[in-house]
Design a protein that fits this description.
heterodimer, A: 76 residues, alpha+beta, GMP Synthetase, Chain A, domain 3, three-stranded mixed beta sheet, 2 helices, 3 strands, B: 108 residues, Glutaredoxin, four-stranded mixed beta sheet, 5 helices
Chain lengths: 76, 108
């Protein structure tokens, strides 16, 4: 059911190779995570596209097995 | 009427609408609760739709916006984002700017 932090990180990293990805396990229960994704490729895109790119990287798990991912995106 | 048409009517018929789990008084999810707190703090006049009361909309809204999670905020017919984006925009002062520019604050 739950996902491991390293799985989340690997999936985001695979889709956005130049991104700096930090995953924090918020509750220590393997189910509530925060992710911070920083990449130059977000430049010029509206925020909603940043988040969409990360959700797409997670291939449909977001909103399914991965309920709680508090996402922050930034440009370096 | 298809679910897509129903959602479209709600989105186009309200200046600000939040699709959420639960009601503004009793949000049923931390993310929906956060979204409500931001809107209330900005004194925005908004409509809310409890997707837990309507399974068709709950499933349909994710296709409508091509966005996998709830809550979802729409302003003037445009999908703005979920609670994380709302928080980022709030902290950057961008939400306040939209509220001011579009005249979305509660009257009085």
């Amino acid at each position: 059911m739950a996902m491991h932090a390293h799985e989340i990180e690997e999936m985001i990293q695979a889709a956005l190779p130049d991104a700096l990805v930090e995953i924090t396990d918020l509750a220590g229960d393997g189910n509530h995570y925060a992710a911070r994704v920083v990449t130059e490729s977000f430049r010029g895109m509206p925020r909603v596209k940043h988040h969409k790119a990360v959700y797409d990287a997670l291939g449909g798990r977001m909103g399914g097995v991965l309920h709680a991912l508090q996402l922050t995106t930034a440009i370096p | 009427m298809s679910v897509n048409e129903r959602i479209d009517e709600i989105v186009k018929g309200n200046d600000v609408v939040l699709f959420m789990k639960g009601s503004p008084l009793f949000p049923q999810c931390g993310f929906s609760s956060k979204a409500i707190a931001i809107l209330d703090h900005l004194n925005v006049a908004y409509e809310s739709v409890d997707v837990l009361q309507d399974m068709e909309i709950r499933a349909g809204i994710k296709d409508y916006s091509d966005w996998p999670t709830i809550p979802q905020l729409y302003v003037k017919g445009e999908f703005l984002g979920g609670s994380d984006i709302m928080m980022e925009m709030y902290e950057a002062g961008e939400l306040q700017a939209i509220v001011d520019a579009e005249g979305l604050a509660k009257a009085g």
